[in-house]
Amino acid sequence: MVVNPAFETEEHLNAALQAATPGGGGGSQEAPDTKEGDEAEPRPSDLLFRVDEAPPWSMCLLLGLQHYLTMATSSIAIPFILVGLLCIEEADPAKGHLISTIIFVSGIITLLQTTLGCRLPIVQGGTTSYLIPTIAIISTRYEACEALPEDLTEAQRREVWQERMREIQGTIAVSAVVQVLVGFTGLIGLLIGWITPLVITPTVTLVGLSLSEVAAQKAALHWGISGTTMVLMVLFSQYLREVGIPLPTYSRAKGLASARLYVFKLFPVLLAVLASWALCAVLTSAGAIPEGSRARSDAATGLVAKSPWFRIPYPGQWGLPTVTLAGVLGMLAGVFASVVESVGDYYVCARLAGAPPPPIHAVNRGIGTEGLGCLLAGIWGTGNGSTSYAENIGVIGVTKVGSRRVVQYAAVYMIVFGMLGKIGAIFASIPEPVVGGVFCIIFGMVAAVGLSSLQFVDLNSSRNLFILGVSIFIGLALPKWLQTSPGAIQTGSVILDQLLSVLLQTSMFVGGFLGFLLDNTIPGTPEERGLLKWKAQMEVSSSDALGGRAITCYDLPFGMDAVRRASWTSRLPFSPTFKGFARRRANQQDP
């Protein structure tokens, strides 16, 4: 975990050192700046700052930068896949513009989520959930990039990729409206009981497994470089994670001291990318990598030079978005997967940030705000949607700083760096085999996150094994067959053919739909299905669980007195005074 030397008081420094030093007594150290009355609210023993506490500004600057770097190294994976689908050339500055846009818009959405949404310290960014339907839409509607004429002019090539981008923009924006409604109408709160571990597992697992071919294609451009990247990621994130680098600190009381910076635990992806990138540069200079190889560090020569220093991404920068019914319905599979993943992230983040489990109104507001974020992403043209970032939630667990203020600082970094075109171009110039190695590890982790939901269910049950096996296998087999059998669906209606082709080529839709249908229709006991353990984790804390104190960390940052005075706000699913539809009906029936 990171030990930040930029504490403004000796108490902050002591708290950080004791929490970060193995065997240093961090287990009994109270976090700094405890507010009056906070003793009734549970705090993890080594948590330095809870969600509603603000660290010193200097600490926010450094920890916010760390959140930005973590988010950025994950976000660049999406544009690297999109440029191949959209037929953007290697040296086209649009590649850097796309990276800058997704980081810029992620900053806006993160500010909205932490300020007005679920109010948890959650970073928002692009998601692989939207890549699967995007691949299905483009492969169904457009010819492969290799089939394009070689004599296209620069303007014609630009129109080729922008036409594809405009359709992806439109489908994401319109499907995002559904997510907005699902959140702000409270529908997600009602559906939580139907979203079970055996629904989540095939949905999220197939996001990672179905991208294995994309990862392999990138890695196969130079297995030596991609293999090195994978080895370094494993080495840094697993074997060296507890190795700390001594870092000098200073306090007025003790003078010079030292603490350990767990850099390998904090930045395994970033360090692996930088090391492999440097290796590519050395091998390129030595002539060990032949001309034309995507592993050369000069493969994107001129990209940084062509990119402007300052460029503000703006709505409609690729043209007016277009919409197709088949595309929208296919993209809804990405919406469903993103919502399922985000609901789980909220509860994990709350636990790590020292907050009570989010009440229904916070979940509703969070999902609705993510929908607004996807709408903005579609309008701006990121080529992707938006979801909560589990990677950054992991950073909270490592640093023991759960303050939302830190994540708001990170959002400002995203917005600022998203306007610096050179920064996006530098990210875009990373050799593709390096990115391929990162893909292999990251997509594998996505699949593992989906499988982790099986901890709640009875895996000795033949019923559960049947649902799990059928959902995952058909979720892989049916889309693969359709991809190799174009035109196999012939209903007599062109629109219906496209609709079914997009939906049935989307692995997570097929697997998630089967899991939802089978688990909610095949008889099984609640314990067998994992519902008892699942609901226990997802249980919303009452005021009694907090020693009689009201949950205030999920309140809006302003206007709460007016909200509480107006009785009609309790009927709004996104209002902090909302108690749930079932509870309100029960209260109305009381004498």
**Shape assignment:** globular
Number of strands: 4
- Helices and strands, in order, run as HHHHEHHHHHHEEHHHHHEHHHHHHHHHHH
What can be said about the biggest beta sheet?
Answer: 2 strands, antiparallel
Strand order, sheet with most strands:
1-4
Overall pLDDT confidence: 78
- Strand residue content: under 5%
Low-confidence stretches: 1-45, 540-550, 583-591
Separation of the first and last Cα atoms: 55 Å
Number of helices: 26
The helix fraction, in percent, is 55-70%
Structural class: mainly alpha
> How many separate domains?
2
Instruction: Specify Rg, calculated over alpha carbons.
Output: 24 Å
List keywords for this structure.
591 residues; mainly alpha; 2 domains; two-stranded antiparallel sheet; 26 helices
Description:
The chain is mainly α. The chain folds into two domains: 10-35 and 46-144 and 153-223 and 300-534, no CATH class; 539-589, no CATH class. The protein has helices at 10-20, 57-75, 77-86, 94-115, 131-141, 154-184, 187-191, 197-209, 212-219, 223-239, 263-266, 268-285, 303-306, 325-352, 360-380, 390-399, 404-418, 421-428, 432-451, 462-484, 494-504, 507-519, 526-529, 531-538, 560-565, 581-589; strands spanning 124-125, 245-251, 255-261, 387-388. A hairpin with a 3-residue loop joins strand 2 (245-251) and strand 3. Helix 10 (223-239) packs antiparallel against helix 12 (268-285) and helix 10 packs across helix 19. The longest helix has 31 residues, at 154-184. Mean pLDDT is 78; it is low at 1-45, 540-550 and 583-591.
